[in-house]
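Prompt: May I have another protein with tokenized structure?
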Amino acid sequence: MRFAISAAAAFLVLACGGVHAQTVDPAKSQISFGFRQENVPGEGTFRRFTAQVSFDSARPEATRANIEVDVTSIDIGEAAWNSDMQGASWFNARQFPKATFIAAGAKAVAGGRFEAPGKFSLKGVTRDVVATFTAKADSGGTLLEGTVPLKRTDFRIGEGAWADTSVVANDVAVRFKVYLRK
């Protein structure tokens, strides 16, 4: 059985900021994640999340992001696996139904990329993370697209028999697309 970890991820949808929160277009936004189980790649998404984001590429230091992911909305392609992920060994969704990412500031780095350090909270654990992303403007707004690398065991995702990182790899890549309307 293939179990995904999470992340949250989703977290991450990270995004970033300007002076005021911009409107996030949920139809053009997504939080997904990649993992490996027994060295076989797997993918998953979170169907429900909220995001308050402000971003201005001319003032990345003013970036603000507050993303909340409903971990019960995980979809790894199989209803039974999705249900298993809600249990105490994985997300413990009854006790910890949300994952959050909060950033206050970003900086431009080489190649048109940005980095936003932030706090990621999942399953009662909060850690410092860095989201790396690009910003692509079009006539309707700006697409922030990037990744947040996580170690699943840092957040107690996959406890007990699932803690063995030779079965389910420790590295999880949370990917996000956040579309900010003008």
Q: What stands out?
A: The CA atoms of residues 31 and 176 lie 5 Å apart. The longest strand covers residues 125-138. The first helix runs from residue 79 to 84. The chain is about 5% helix and 50% strand.
